[in-house]
Amino acid sequence: MIKDVDNLLEQKKIRPTAMRILIFKFLKVQKVATSLTDIENAFDKSERTTLYRTLKTFEEHGVVHTIDDGSGVTKYALCEDNCQCDVETDLHLHFHCNHCNETVCLTNHKIPQINLPEGYLAEDVNLVVKGVCDKCNLL
């Protein structure tokens, strides 16, 4: 697995340091989008700035995408294998549970391309559906 992570990071032009590999592996097993605080709690011996810089590097190189779910806290999730984080082709829905406060990527639910008026240029699109997730709905 480490060799696979090394190769993936190198393909994205990211030097595979020990911390970057650990953070990637941590994000890989998460079922929900994760905040910097969640990552910081998992790596309690690491400096917050190191974790933040790693996430920013991952974001700049298309390894993770950020999610603004309206909670006031940026969340991070790994991009799909073939994702280019392109506004026109790679956008998907996110679901934020008002009960458990978790946010998940709904990658099978793509956001359709939006034709903006002439002269407008989309730089980011964020569509978050809010409600009660399947786990909380069973309670």
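(the above was protein one; protein two follows)
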Amino acid sequence: MIQPTLTIYGADWCPDCRRSKQFLFNQNIPFTWIDVDQDENASDLVKQMNNGNRIIPTIIFEDGSFLAEPSDRALADKLGIPA
């Protein structure tokens, strides 16, 4: 099994989070899901990364870079795959 190299910080109620998760699922890209509503430390991390704003999804990549609330196109471009 491929180990996830992406971590998505989001919430179940968030439509952008569901869209990003579905995009990655459709591309067979494994990821770790962390619900910021269930994990206060995760919520604090998202705020820290986004200048005090709780922007979700925040997706952290293996190289330590991240995208906040990316479009499918931005996510595909970052991953080097077709959108």
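Reviewer note on protein two: The mean pLDDT is 94.
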